């Protein structure tokens, strides 16, 4: 294929806690993020998601802006404790109605909703019961997935189960810089990870059973992707090896692709990890892998950056140092467009699943200029370079179905609070006014020509 498929999905993404606000309205229960943000000193500037972008009230305006940009799809997440204030049991009808209205508004504007079930705002009541360590936690998640499906699958057909398990386990329970801010042992984090994966599989089963029409279900992990220094077979193999290998440190093991993807897509934990982490692993039940590897329709993948690799003497990956002055974003993340070619390619070659890029973007120090506009040439340049790589992947035969830019608007960037601006739309938090940035108009033009401008 030359370039992107004709029905390529051009989307934008956001997540409930980062944009909604309405944190204590209409019967919503507390999430671990509502709690965590109240802890002194953990979030930049003492920010919270209590109000965020106030999308709980302003979603119509948000959707109007999406329409102006011309996006085909919106990847949103549902706040679990808004639907189930205690995480299980009693349902909050007002919470359900909020997403009814949001979905209907999207559909009326010709924008397809892609729903992520869980983007980190875990119900606090379940956390008090042990959260993902509780043996019932997979079932809790499956019950929630069933509720979502029963309510919305008449209108919504695309779902992702989990967003970035690497982060919500690694940052939440290993390094402790995200909610709930714990530092647990490797025994605990491996147990949690297994329960999370079981939860994913059980949710998929529950959704297929409750669906009112055939659904397309995927998963949205993240990764930093290694890309080869040259096109030599040796360098490519070294980069592939690096991408699917596992970290040695059991206290910081969650940053990897294969422990999270192989069980889901290949039905087995990677042998390297089974050997390396043997003494920390939980009991893995006989049918567990069958449950975890429920057939999926596609793989979602969040990709922001990567590391260049070359082959050493015996083919081993050598991670290359970046040159002085290497391009970086406002968050000091390296700008490495090649990861949007090699990431999808390596994933496709290993898992043979259609791919959506579920997140990609950058933080810039955007300001409203004297002319009243937001000029963000760095974001345009970044998106141009990254999307050009993704287009090349598609041309080279990788089944890339769509791309969700992160994010439709500036929002609550976790422990960085509102200090980092990731949006195509600028948000003035003093009064919640929204302004499409130059990059938003550039994205509109790119969508309009299906990426033929990416040369
Ligand atoms: C993710 C993150 C998003 C972040 C974005 C920028 O899914 O990666 O959780 O919520 O805001 O990645 O850091």
At the first level of CATH, the class is Alpha Beta
Main β-sheet, in a few words?
10 strands, mixed
Based on the structure given, which CATH architecture is correct? Alpha-Beta Barrel
Strands, count: 12
CA(first)-CA(last) distance? 15 Å
Core attributes:
two-stranded antiparallel ribbon; ten-stranded mixed β-sheet; 455 residues; alpha/beta; single chain; binds D-gluconic acid; TIM Barrel
Structure description:
Strands 1, 2, 3, 4, 5, 6, 7, 8, 9 and 10 form a 10-stranded mixed beta sheet that branches. The chain has helices at residues 16-19, 32-36, 55-69, 80-83, 93-108, 124-128, 137-152, 165-174, 186-210, 233-244, 258-266, 271-276, 288-292, 339-351, 377-395, 438-448, and strands at 9-13, 73-77, 112-118, 158-163, 216-220, 222-228, 299-311, 317-319, 355-359, 400-406, 425-428, 433-436. It has one domain (9-448): Glycosidases (TIM Barrel). The chain has 455 residues and is of the alpha/beta class. The protein has 16 helices and 12 strands. Bound molecules: D-gluconic acid (GCO). D-gluconic acid (GCO) is lined by residues 15, 18, 163-164, 167, 222, 302, 359, 406, 413, 422. Residues 15, 18, 163-164, 167, 222, 302, 359, 406, 413, 422 line the site of D-gluconic acid (GCO).
Quick take:
The protein has 455 residues and is an alpha/beta fold.
